[in-house]
Specification:
- By secondary structure, the chain is an alpha/beta fold.
- Helices cover about 35% and strands about 15% of the residues.
- The protein is built from 13 helices and 16 strands.
- A seven-stranded mixed sheet has the order 3-11-10-7-6-4-5, sandwiched between helices.
- Helix 2 crosses helix 9.
- The relative contact order is 0.17.
- It binds pyridoxal-5'-phosphate.
- Pyridoxal-5'-phosphate binds next to helix 3 and helix 4.
- The site of pyridoxal-5'-phosphate (PLP) has 15 residues, from helix 3 and helix 4.
């Protein structure tokens, strides 16, 4: 049995984005503060009289805010840059400790190190979300930590309402890593409507790297409702002199003029080509999420009756976006799991185990962030048995059946 389709097929760029990218290249207007002079790049609404030209990046920032409901957004070259900037904007000082998930992607602790911080790792549970009891304990042991960079791996959302409360009670600034959570919503019993994830912290960071929900190869967006964080981030991303005036939603000129000479320019801006390929993906997002949901639900049903497999629970408040599939294998030894991983790959299933020795999501591989590997027994046990694959939209229901059959057969043979 062999599966022949690629798991790594990225989503294609809509025709409109390709056309706009061509137009930009022909004009040379690639710098974000250099708008194309075409009528559709103006805005007419309550605040805008339709006479100002805006760049692709400025318009993307507006459209992103319209989607997630944030007041401000700043488009950057990556989500890693967004997390770095969010920490800087939140006031991190050299040597400060920052709480962070032990189960996440290496870019997350790297952004802390980049900002001069030192990660303090928190355990996850079998649903790949933060272990709240461990968080409380670590606060007691490390009472001076002032930041939490909370990562939502593969769009699995922790109990962020409870975490927000704990942060407030302990003077901890919460920053949300929503890299892989665009379109994910949160709604508790008393909320009238669901809200997009990223509204519980001081800032949230999204990614447009090819494997995420919108694809420009590379790209990141920092969102916030806080005007000081917004002003700092706009300036530090690389907005000098009066360029901030080219941002559509922005804090007052007085704030910028007051602080701009104190803020370095880190040159993290997004360029217009990137924004041009992203903009037409925004209106297609909800339809895409729906298509993922259909595939995900089908797979989850198939997996329900495979022995030695458990799929993660999702909190009732969360509507996850299922563009990838995770499951824990139960009752297998380390060598059996490795045998399963290699035989799955030989059968054409591009499956990874998060806790594999060469996986960038395994904390032991983040040696740059510690002198001695931290004790994280619970996370280690979970991620060494946690499997993951993407679900490209090119997959059909028949493909999902074949994947399930192969995995079921392999697990039966091994166990
Ligand atoms: C992809 C990803 C990142 C990094 O995003 P970049 O845009 O590549 O910097 C960070 N956190 C999570 C959870 C991710 O999935």
């Amino acid at each position: 049995m062999k599966f022949n389709k690629s798991f790594s097929t990225p989503d294609p760029i809509p025709k409109k984005g390709i056309e706009k990218a061509k137009q930009l290249m022909e004009s040379g207007h690639l710098f974000r503060y250099n708008p194309l002079d075409i009528p559709e790049n103006t805005l007419k609404n309550e605040e805008n009289d339709g006479s100002t030209l805006y760049s692709e990046v400025a318009l993307l920032e507006k459209e992103f805010c319209d989607y997630t409901g944030h007041k401000y957004s700043i488009a950057l070259n990556s989500c890693g840059s967004a997390m770095f900037l969010a920490l800087k904007a939140a006031g991190i000082q050299h040597g400060d400790e920052v709480f962070c998930n032990a189960f996440t992607f290496t870019a997350v602790p790297s952004s802390i190190v980049h900002a001069g911080g030192v990660p303090v790792y928190l355990e996850c549970n079998t649903d790949y979300i933060l272990d709240i009891e461990d968080f409380k304990q670590k606060i007691t042991i490390n009472p001076n930590v002032r930041f939490l960079l909370l990562s939502y791996m593969r769009g699995h959302i922790s109990d962020v309402e409870q975490i927000q409360q704990i942060c407030e009670d302990n003077n901890i600034i919460l920053i949300e890593d929503c890299a892989h959570s665009l379109g994910v919503t949160w709604q508790n019993e008393s909320d009238q409507r669901p809200t997009h994830i990223g509204h519980h912290g001081a800032a949230a960071c999204f990614s447009a790297q090819s494997n995420k929900l919108i694809n420009s190869g590379e790209g990141g967006i920092l969102v916030t409702n806080d005007e000081e964080i917004a002003a700092y981030s706009i300036l530090a991303a690389g907005s000098y002199e009066r360029l901030y005036q080219q941002h559509i939603a922005r804090p007052s000129d007085e704030i910028f003029e007051k602080i701009k000479r104190d803020i370095p320019n880190f040159s993290l801006r997004m360029n217009n080509l990137t924004a041009a390929v992203l903009r037409p993906q925004m209106p297609e997002l909800d339809e895409k999420i729906q298509a993922y949901a259909t595939l995900y639900d089908e797979l989850e049903n198939h997996f329900a009756d495979i022995a030695h497999v458990e799929t993660p629970n999702i909190l009732p408040e969360v509507q996850r976006v299922g563009d990838s599939f995770q499951f824990n294998v139960v009752g297998l030894t380390a060598s059996q799991i490795e045998e399963f991983r290699t035989s799955a790959q030989k059968s054409g299933i591009e499956l990874q185990v998060f806790g594999h020795t060469d996986n960038a999501r395994y904390f032991r591989n983040w040696q740059y962030s510690f002198d001695e590997a931290p004790e994280l027994q619970q996370t280690e046990e979970i991620i060494t048995a946690a499997c993951d694959f993407r679900i490209p939209l090119t997959f059909t229901k028949k493909d999902l059946q074949s994947i399930t059959d192969i995995i079921r057969t392999l697990l039966k043979q091994i166990h």
